[in-house]
Amino acid sequence: MRPPLSLQRLTSSFSNIQSASSWFEVYAAFSTSMILVRTAVNDFLPPAIRSFIISNLKSLFSRPRSRVSKIVTLQISDYWEVGQKNELYDAVKEYAPAKIRHEYNTLKIGKLQGKESIIFAVTSGQKFEDVFQEMKITWTFNHVKSQSSDNSSGNNHEKNMFVLSFDEKHREKVLENYIPYVLNKYKTMKEGEKVLKIHTRSGGWRATELKHPATFETLAMDPELKQAIIDDLDRFLRRKEFYKRVGKAWKRGYLFYGPPGTGKSSLVAAMANYLKFDVYDLQLSRVHSDSELETAVRTTANRSILVIEDIDCNEETHDRSRVQTVVLHSSQPYKRNAFSLSGLLNYIDGLWSSCGEERIIIFTTNYIEKLDPALLRPGRMDMHINLSYCKPHGFRTLALNYLGIHGGHHPELMEEIEGLLEKTEVTPAAVAEELMKNEDASIVLQGLVSFLKRKKMEDDEQEGVDDMQSVGDNVNLQKSKRAKVE
To answer: How confident is the model over 252-263, as pLDDT tens digits?
Structure first.
């Protein structure tokens, strides 16, 4: 059977295409052939077969070319340079076990001294996958021992490294979204298990673990004042953008004042435990110049509490309006250089105060009247907290802490004690000492009643002596005035 004439022309045209004077004949022959093929398919093939052929032809010609994926790898070493720790490595080291501890069978497990919980870690060569915003990310942990460049020494250097692999098309999302996400997760986990430190200055800051157990629940102070402090701290923590918007350094100043033994140091510890902030204890008597003071303040960390206790003990902080005449003798020793009040003001509220953020500054004093007013104004000491003598609300907290009792226990003794506290000036520290003298609550409370009665009697006697002294002073003053008139 001979092929149709149009097909013969098409074949002839393709065979002689190089000698054809025009492509038009090829196009005309091809078009005619396609019309004949379509007519034959529609007339002679069943609909099901026809649909199958057309569907496969469409799939064949419309199938996109497969893209060859390009894998990007990021290496995160434990040290960026010699002696310079890589914080991102630490973040991944904490983040990885939390992701895989329920999915993988091979994990390192242990318990470190000072840690209450079991810790997990990945092993060398282990891979695990993470999914973030529909991206698949592969992590590999490698522990490498490399020989020193000086082969004769035979020393080996250990290097730990996480390798992050992902599709190149996700590069921007990984760098701008995923890496910050891992860092934020690390920050959240570390805050939950952070071991607080107290730093003291001796040449430089030296850290010791802060184990003070004080919390807001254990403080013997007015419940309303306690809640006001907590609310103020919470408000401070969430107002980073507010401080930035109004142009203020992100810091907060507190002044604790009151008699000795009223719980100023315990309140500092309770704030540190509540905020999970390290404490920097700065003793101004050890600061010999403004530059040394600047170094001390500048090198405190963010999210920390800078405490200057008994600030009234430093002459530089006394009220400058109280002019004092000082007579210098050649036999007097030379006074060492010290910081200045203006330097202290600058470092807590001036330009240097903006060299950190999320910081708490606390002054404590037993004698607020001694301090220069410039130290106390808002912006330096924003909240003044008077920690005074023990009152009934404070005693109830102490009784619960030390004896495990509340108002329903020993009601008569409790009522008598609370009545005496309203009339007697006694510090929470003194009451706490009485509560520790016996394990029997009844004996302790009776002893506290006796103690408070003695204290009230002593106070009354002292008050009588003071009144007599005052009368005597007035008599002497009147005599002096009469003598001057005469």
So the answer is: 999 999 999 999
